[in-house]
Design goal:
By secondary structure, the chain is α+β, with helices and mostly antiparallel strands. The protein has two helices and four strands; from the N terminus they run βαββαβ. The protein is globular and about 35 Å long.
Length: about 90
């Protein structure tokens, strides 16, 4: 199992969230701040099976590439972490 941590600019957060939910990925949305000029970001936490990581990453990339604003800026920072243990109570 993997945990994807995706930090997205606020202006693209809704598009990313909608795309992930449409493809039935479970996602938690957290408001965050950081980066240059302390602009608003949204951090998504996505717990996912190993074989679906590439599909989730492509979904995020596609959703971010649809925004024409700031085409020369980084749109998303993604970390993919291994999960040693997962529990849902």
């Amino acid at each position: 199992m993997k945990l994807i941590v995706a930090i997205v600019r606020d202006i693209e957060a809704d598009a990313v969230l909608n795309a992930l939910v449409e493809r039935r990925f479970g996602v938690t949305r957290i408001a965050s701040t950081g980066g240059f000029l302390r602009r608003g970001n949204t951090t998504f936490l996505i717990g996912i099976e190993d074989d679906k990581v590439d599909q989730a990453l492509e979904t995020i990339r596609s959703a971010c590439s649809q925004s024409p604003e700031g085409a020369d800026q980084r749109r998303v920072t993604i970390f993919v972490l291994s999960v040693a243990r997962f529990e849902q109570l």
